[in-house]
Amino acid sequence: MPRVLNGIVAVCPDLGIGCGGNLPWHPVRLSNEFAHFRKMTSTAREGKKNVVIMGRKTWFSIPAKNRPLNNRINIVLSRQCIAPPAGAHHLAADFSSALRLVDTELSEQADQVWVIGGSSLYKEMMESPGTRRLFVTRILKQFDSDTFLPEISPDKYRLLPEFPGVPQELQEENGIQYRFEVYESNDQ
C-alpha cells in the first residue's frame, strides 16, 4: 500500500509560516498548538516511530535543546551538508532521496511520514503523487512573514469535515485565536 505523506504547518491569513528564521508570532508561544504538532507527529504504531522530514533551515530554527525531535526519526534535507547536522538521525540530498531512505533502510521502523518545513519542501510534498494530507493550523491574526506556504489548491485538496484526534472547536491562547484544519488529496 502506498505511503500517505503528511504535512503539518501553522499559517497566518496570508499563508506566512516564518519570519527571520522563527515562527511569525515569535516570541509569543502557542503551547497548545505546539502540543498538537508534537502529538500528531509523534503518535505511531507500537514498535515504530514516525519520520519527520525537514529542510536544513527548519532544523536550525528548532532550539538546539529540542533537537532532534524526540521519539521521531529526524531526516534533514541539504545539498550543502556532507554529514547529518549534530543530533539529526539522517541526511538526504532531496525529498525523493528521503522518501527512498524511508522505504528502504528505515522501512522496518518507520510508521508515518511528516513534512515539517520549509516552504520549498511543502511545495514538493503538496505536488507529489499519491495520498497527501495537510494538517494546517490557521492562525487568525496576521503577523509579518518572509516565508510562505504554497497556495492550497481546491482543485487538488479538499477540506475534511473532521479528522480523528484533531479538535474542531476554535482555539485561543495568549490572545491569538486559531483553528485546526485537515486537507486531503488523492490524485495519482
Name the descriptors.
188 residues; nine-stranded mixed beta sheet; two-stranded antiparallel ribbon; 32% strand; oxidoreductase; DHFR-like_dom_sf; one-carbon metabolism; NADP binding
Task: Briefly say what this structure is.
With 188 residues, the protein is of the alpha/beta class. The chain has a single domain, classed as Dihydrofolate Reductase, subunit A (3-Layer(aba) Sandwich), CATH 3.40.430.10. It contains four helices and eleven strands, in the order ββαβαββαβαβββββ.
Task: Characterize the structure shown.
- This is dihydrofolate reductase.
- It catalyses: (6S)-5,6,7,8-tetrahydrofolate + NADP(+) = 7,8-dihydrofolate + NADPH + H(+).
- The protein is built from four helices and eleven strands; from the N terminus they run E-E-H-E-H-E-E-H-E-H-E-E-E-E-E.
- It has 188 residues and is α/β, with parallel strands linked by helices.
- It has a single domain (5-187), classed as Dihydrofolate Reductase, subunit A (3-Layer(aba) Sandwich), CATH 3.40.430.10.
- The strands form two sheets. Strands 1, 3, 4, 5, 6, 7, 9, 10 and 11 form a nine-stranded mixed β-sheet that branches. The chain has a two-stranded antiparallel sheet with strand order 2-8.
- The mean pLDDT is 95.
